Description:
Layout: E1 10-19, E2 24-29, E3 37-38, E4 41-43, H1 51-63, E5 65-77, E6 81-93, E7 105-108, H2 110-117, H3 121-128
Parallel strand pairs: 1-6
Antiparallel strand pairs: 1-2, 1-4, 2-3, 2-7, 5-6
Helix pairs in contact: 2-3
Amino acid sequence: MSNKGRSTPRVVCCAIPIARSANKVLVITSRKRPNNWVLPKGGWEPSDGMLEAAASREALEEAGVRGKITQFVTTIPTASSTYHFYELDVADLDAEWLESKERRREWVDYTEAIRRLAWKAELAQGLSLSSLAPKR
């Protein structure tokens, strides 16, 4: 995989939106591959300041999620990007949001989320290290 013209890998911040009481995670459809599911994620921007702020911003833009980042999960480096995962406890979902015309969202349990994210290994791996993962 290439860095797409960058000299260093892209910094990607990923939210794992969780409904604690229901033990569910919110997944969204990919814009590039509308039949595939992803977690809200996107590039860190200098205006974000901290990485978790970028994860929270991406969750709001891509999924209409409002809530609180509760913990850092992991960092996963790939050839083109470095992914930083954060759990986000969902307080509210906006009925309309920035990308609502381009994406679907759905609450699913951990097993179903892992199945839907399996096509993108780093996303499934990030979720598998979260507090939703069954204890071994």
